[in-house]
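ENTRY TYPE: protein
CONTENTS: sequence, structure tokens:
***
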Amino acid sequence: MKKLLLLLFLFLSCGRINNPQDDPDDIGIVISIADSYKIDLTKQTYTVYFIKGDSLEIEFTLDSREKNKIISKKNSLKYDRSLDRIWISDSCWIAPKLYTMLSIKSAGRINQISIDDGCDNFEIADKELAIQLEEFISLVKEIIYLKKEIKNAPESDWGYF
């Protein structure tokens, strides 16, 4: 009986390691804006990329109110979490396309969603999600860009942004 309990305990422990739950302090979101900027809400860093290949990483701190606001908005996004990659389709003919990429970690899985945030003419099937994503990205930018560390950050020298 003791062996059976030990085996059962080991089996359940291994299952827990392989199926990690979300850490409540881990927001689990990285937003890459074109080739110019990256906002990593897990590491709480803002990275500016430059043409020469250099980058500047700036640390910031989110308070619990800001974290809760972001997590609440993240949890309200309605997308197919079973898909690894989601491309939001649009009817804009602008070139080059400047995609914002969201990596969202939830329940131990990472979903990547791409949206051209320079376009607001989305395909009907993607319109609702596109609007939700634009609101989410705006919320995150609003919170991050008000941080004093980020206000003083240099701009990316990518000419098209």
